[in-house]
Fold:
Amino acid sequence: MNKHRLMSPGPTPVPEKVLLRMADTMIHHRTPQFQAVLKDVNIKIKKVFQTENPVLIFASSGSGAMETSVVNLLSKGDKALVIRGGKFGERFSEICKVYGVETVDYDVTWGESADIETLEKLLKDNPGIKVVYSTLCETSTGVVNNIEAIAKIVADTKAVLVVDAISGLTADELKTDEWGVDVTICGSQKGLMLPPGLAFLSISPKAQKLVEASDLPKYYFDLKAALKSYKKDDTPWTPAVSLIMGLNLVLDMMLKEGMGNIIKRHARLADLTRSAVKAMGLEIFAKTPSNAVTSVKVPEGVDGSALVKKMRDEQGITVAGGQGNFKGKIFRIAHLGYMDVYDTISAISGIEIVLKELGYNVKLGSGVAKIETLLT
Ligand SMILES: *Cc1c(COP(=O)(O)O)cnc(C)c1O
Structure:
């Protein structure tokens, strides 16, 4: 028997008391009882998003909010600029194309973050860009983008900035209002310590103007309907009641710890993970690594897919493999949400054992010893 340890960048572990809260008796959503919960949630979640703007909640995975941001902000024939440094950046382009939105794709080499001067030039060369899409943490590569700098550049144009912070929120700093991010997107199953099933989208007054003008087809993900209900602490459709009950508790836990402390905790675990990986003689893939996930190059001669499989099936530890062209070439260890230093130590220990079994000459204990040294 192995205990199951979830160390992937989503889904992430859910605290036991949150699981119990979600197992509580079902209540009807059109009741004062549920509306009181939603009202509470609507106030508290703004602190996590660091915004005074509405944060809308959808019963979908994170990609639902990504699609929402396309079909509600843009119109047919509009142009959007998409920063694509991995699988999730690419998703915005794919959604735009489905709806007939033209995209200017800024292809960033996987493992690197968006270059600010290149972005500035692209925006100059392509006037009339209505929306700029970026990820905070590009989960497929473990890179964090410099959203503060990107927002400054976008602020000089008429465009609105949409940030996919599905994995980055709570791990990497994101000052939505202070930096001038118009739309921040998140999902429940990453830093927010919940099961999959909720998507979030905060929206600035500037972005709300685009919603008024948008002519793309939508029904379920209609922001006009969502904003109208939001004003009454309601939702247009049946919300994911149990998940929102869990969210209410998660938000209490997060606000008690404080956003600054949460980000510091992620930064510390990320730093310990990177130090351990380097002590094992391995190389970090991301040039500007995120606090949410550490991407590691699979060493020469080692089968990266076998590593992930052995970790899961023999050690009981789920880490993530590479995606796209980097399948088998990198693996990713999360330090995201409900995780602490002993989760990290477990993952590093498991990696040492599996690497040894796969024929890589790792000094057993080197990664774990590094963490212990840094902790004392
Ligand atoms: C996980 C993730 C997504 C996709 O979210 P789903 O919940 O799977 O729809 C999108 N973007 C980023 C950066 C992610 O980490």
In short: The CA atoms of residues 182 and 202 lie 8 Å apart. The longest helix spans residues 259-279.
